[in-house]
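REQUEST FORM: STRUCTURE PREDICTION
Request ID: SP-0412
Submitted by: Lab K.M.
Chain count: 1
Length (residues): 468
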Amino acid sequence: MQTSEIHTSAERIGKDRVKLRVEVPEASLAQAVTAAYRKWANEIRVPGFRKGKIPRQIIDARVGADTVREEALREALPDFYSEAMNAEDLQAIAPPDIEVIDFTQGSPVVFEATVDVRPEIDLPDIGSLTVEAPPSDVNDADISEQLDTLRDRFAELEGVTREARRGDYVLIDLNGSRDGEPVEGASAPDLLYELGSRTGPPKLDDELEGNRPGAILRFTDSIRMGTTEEGGSGVLPGGDISFTVLLKEVKTKRLPPLDDEFAKTVGEFDSLDELRGDLRERLGDVKLRMVAEEIGRLVLDAFIRASDLEPPEKLVDTEFEHRLDHFEADLERAGITLEGYAREVGSTVLELRSELRAEAAKSVVAELLLEEVARTEAIEVAQEDLGREVSFEAARTGRPASEIAEEMLTPSNLRLVASAILRRKALAFVVEHANVIGRPHEEATVEAAKERTPASVAAEEADAAVEA
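STATUS: Completed
RESULT:
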């Protein structure tokens, strides 16, 4: 393709790979050559000439005309490459491999760029996507579950003389030692511990269960290096630790009766029926939001399944490495290796990596499809969209909105933030036009797909289908 300055041609050499040939008139290099001479004139010292005023012929004699031209080409190549990509209407997904073919004085500069490009995307028919919405009604069982949670929250602990059972709270003195010496972080006096919580040494729950107050327990446990159980301090060193536990008290929860007095304790309610009504209303809003988010996930999965798009390997590689790095960092914070985690879940490292790569490929497909929807439907990110994003982060973190805006809307971050918003808006469009059987409230489900809520963030982190 001929532009005002350069001539380009493109040849597909793979599914998502293009070889771009570019011819640049030598005159187009003149500005870069001038800049290169100016740079050298300011860097070298020549007796009798002021800095920055050294003639070209002297610079040629000192550093070589070819050296100056090569430096000029290095500086100009990115702009020539970018112009050629625009001329051929190509979008790169990775840095190119560039080879200069001809750089003869007095002739056009010729170079070839081999580059991985965004694939051509045929969107599935959105109207044919069919999913069934999960139920959104709040039933009596939901209300009872919430009431039980409230009763548990307002329960009081009372001492009992019987043996300790799962669900009890025990007051213990926990002491850990190795070779007769105390182990830092392995002891906790007067520790109130929930039996069955499995937050202490691995054998602690089994050793405590069935014992009465006054019992002294001794056992050796193999500890993986990591943070201590609740009530401890520091970091537990790995290896065998000898524990001595004094069981001082056994306490059980005494739940308050479910009556009008309980409703008054919970909040400003005159009766239990009033509390039930308030719970039903609140649960209704929460359930609608959860259902709306689930519909978004179901529709996106259906959208991906309906597409025959094969994700570019370069993008999958990048996303896979990103996910693997984060996963291994999370495991490291928990004091476990990838190999150790694989053993614990009955898998292998190869299988875990394969699962992560499959998730990465799905994420890439989702991103490409949603970006294509945004392009074809002319969906844009408005200033108010960015404002809502800032407001959400400020509310979530408790930090000033001005501070969030300054951090989030920097040139380096703005593109990522805008891309994430754009994909959410594109997903909202797909949800709106898909066939959702039993959709509870059209407006609620569509708006939920657009907005970033704490629940939607948790969902994004869970399956990372449209993660930036």
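NOTES: The radius of gyration is 33 Å.
Reviewed by: T.R.
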